[in-house]
Write a structure and sequence with these properties.
The protein has two domains: 6-140, Alpha/Beta hydrolase fold, catalytic domain (Rossmann fold), CATH 3.40.50; 146-231, no CATH class. Helix 3 (117-129) links the parallel strand 5 (110-115) and strand 6 (134-140). It has a six-stranded mixed β-sheet. The protein is globular and about 55 Å long. It has helices at 57-62, 90-103, 117-129, 146-157, 162-170, 175-189, 198-208, 220-223, 228-231, and strands at 6-15, 18-27, 38-41, 66-70, 110-115, 134-140. The chain is of the alpha/beta class. Helix content is 37%, strand content 18%.
Length: 238
C-alpha cells in the first residue's frame, strides 16, 4: 500500500520516575486544522501501528489530522524487557495516551479509533479518565465481553486441523507454534488481501520475528485481551 506524507518523532513519557519514548507518525497538519484530529490505537497488546496505515488516507482525502503511534514496549517506542510483568497495566497505556494527547495540545478536541485491544484501551480511557475533549470514540473489531470473544473464536477454530487448534490454544507459551497456527487462520479469517501487504508481516514480525519482542504480548495482566484478537485468535492465557 502507498504511504501518505507524514512527519515522525518520539515523545518523552515519564512513568514512575523513569523516562521512556513513544514513537509517533502525524499525517496532516494540526496547525490551522478545521477538523478534530484522530488518534488511532493499535491492537495487541504487543503489536505496532504499521498495519493501520490505511487510516492515514483520512488525512489526505478528508483533511483529518491522523496520529498513529507504537504503544510503549512495542515497535519503535521504548522496549522494557527487564520489568516485572505487573508493570504492564492498562493504566500504564492510558497514561501514555494522555501524554501523547497533551504533547500535541489536542486535549480540547480529538477523536479516538481503537482497533481490538486498542478498542479496549480507548474504552478504559473513557471510563477511567472521562476526557472532556473526546468528541468521538470508534471501536473497530473490538470485544464487548471476553466470554463472547472466546466463544466466537472457538467456533471459528472448529473447522481447522488439530495442530492449528493446538497452536492457537497454546498461544504465547509456544510462540513458534502459535505463529504457524495464526498464519493458517489468517488465510481464512485474517488478512485476505493478496499479495499480503508488507506492513502486515512487519507488524507480526515485531512479536514473532527474529528481532521481535514478545514482552508485552506475553504479559499476564493484559494477555487475555490478546494480540490474536487483532491478528488471529488465542483464547488461552499463559
Amino acid at each position: 500500500m502507498s504511504q501518505p506524507i507524514f512527519r515522525e518523532g518520539t515523545i518523552n513519557f515519564t512513568y514512575d520516575g523513569e523516562i521512556y519514548q513513544t514513537y509517533y507518525k502525524l499525517f496532516g497538519e494540526l496547525d490551522g486544522r478545521t477538523r478534530d484530529p484522530i488518534v488511532v490505537l493499535h491492537g495487541g497488546p504487543g503489536l505496532v501501528h504499521d498495519y493501520l496505515f490505511p487510516f492515514a488516507n483520512l488525512a489526505t482525502q478528508h483533511n483529518f489530522p491522523v496520529i498513529l503511534y507504537d504503544q510503549i514496549g512495542n515497535g519503535r517506542s521504548s522496549h522494557i524487557k527487564e520489568k516485572d510483568p505487573a508493570f504492564w497495566t492498562i493504566d500504564l497505556f492510558i497514561d501514555e495516551l494522555v501524554n501523547l494527547i497533551t504533547h500535541f495540545s489536542i486535549q480540547d478536541g480529538f477523536d479516538l479509533v481503537g482497533h481490538s485491544w486498542g478498542g479496549i484501551l480507548a474504552s478504559e480511557f473513557e471510563v477511567r479518565r472521562q476526557p472532556a475533549g473526546l468528541k468521538r470514540l470508534v471501536l473497530s473489531n473490538s470485544l464487548p465481553a471476553i466470554s463472547l470473544w472466546t466463544q466466537s473464536n472457538m467456533q471459528l477454530l472448529e473447522a481447522f486441523p488439530e495442530e492449528v487448534k493446538k497452536g492457537i490454544m497454546e498461544g504465547m507459551k509456544d510462540p513458534e507454534g502459535y505463529f504457524r497456527a495464526l498464519k493458517e487462520l489468517h488465510a481464512v479469517h485474517g488478512c485476505l488481501a493478496r499479495p499480503i501487504p508488507a506492513e502486515y508481516w512487519y507488524t507480526l514480525d515485531q512479536v514473532f520475528g527474529p528481532a521481535g519482542d514478545p514482552t508485552v504480548a506475553s504479559a499476564p495482566y493484559v494477555h487475555f485481551h490478546c494480540l490474536s484478537n487483532d491478528m488471529g485468535v488465542n483464547p488461552s492465557s499463559p
